[in-house]
Amino acid sequence: MSGPVTHIPTVVIGAGHAGLAVSRELSARSIDHVVLERGEVANTWKTERWDSLRLLTPNWQTRLPGFEYDGDEPDGFMTVGEVTTFIEEYAARIDAPVEANTTVSSLRVEDGSYRVSTDGRAWQADSVVVATGAFNQAKLPTVAGELPSGIESVAAFDYKRPSQLPDGGVLVVGASATGIQLADEIHRSGRPVTLAVGEHVRMPRTYRGRDIQWWLERNGRLDERYDEVDDIVRARHVPSPQLVGTPDRSTLDLNALTGRGVRLVGRLSAFRDRTAYFSGSLRNVCSLADLKQIRLLDLTDEWASVNGLGPDLPPPERFPATVVPDNPVLSADLAAEAITTVLWATGYVADYSWLEIPVLDRRGEIRHDGGVVTESPGLYRIGLNFLRRRKSSFIHGAGDDAADLGEHLAGFLASRHRVAV
Questions:
Q1: Which terminal CB of the chain, N or C, has fewer other CB atoms within 10 Å?
Q2: pTM (2 decimals)?
Q3: Residue 124 and residue 127: Cα distance in Å, rounded?
Q4: What are the percentages of helix, strand and coil residues in the chain, rounded to 5?
Q5: Which phi and psi angles does 111 have, rounded to 5°?
């Protein structure tokens, strides 16, 4: 856009929990900044989540720098509305300089600084923090392009409630946290559900009387850093665990789903004519997920023993292996089985259509070193899976990441000022 340009040290793009955590860190360092948000504060939670969604993390774990849950149900799980309120209250508490309903149309380098153009005005900044989240668009597999005509195609990104789907059976593709929750909800609405299962992470909701997140936080696994793992690219693309937040703290795994009548099939591999074809790998991927869960529980028990917690807790337990049919279905005639909808729970990708700086890799993701975009000094990214720590994708993980990036950003601005002087 043309017109006057506002100069400011830092622009933060996105007023979700991560962007607000960064704002607090910048304010604590007296760094003048603005937070640009295309909608309202917590816009993603307000507009891009299904109605019944609850956080996967318990309420006691819902915290941001200087602000945390203080209600009467620490072991409960926030609804979408409660999460929205929590983030809105945080923005007010820290007096974040948010410019709402401001859409960024482009970010580029100009005259040695960053030019952030919006639908209202332009900003010139020494540094920019991209906090737009990782779930801006549905990530659909290639096979989605083969879907026969007449079959409704719905991405989890656009799903709100079962009533929006046409009558008939539903094929849910993807068995991570989103897939299993939607498969369960849709099946409970009275529709027959087939769940196409690929790689997944099995995890109990509670273990030995404690939430699994309690164990992961206490034993330090959630604080594991990105530079401490052997393959960070792999770690950043591991599917989200099969966890669901419910008032009764129940475990929702594939055995629970099949017990309720959901049919399991292997990974969706192709559509030909009006037939869906599935991989024969169902048993293998389920066995691998079972094995990894056992390893996780073994490590948990070992940690509890070393730290003297064993006598105060229920004894160790192991869960039944995933039940897989002796002869899993390898194909399904959509018409014969009255499957009218395919729901894609196959993940999300960030939207960088406005980014005019060549820092994207072959996956279309920003290349960064723990959130620091080294190819473009002064550019930062926050709010991604395993950005700096294993907990980075959770609300409570934003605080430490924001502190680290805030310190780096402050150092960058100081060095830039020294050079300019």
A1: C
A2: 0.94
A3: 9
A4: 30, 25, 45
A5: 55, 40
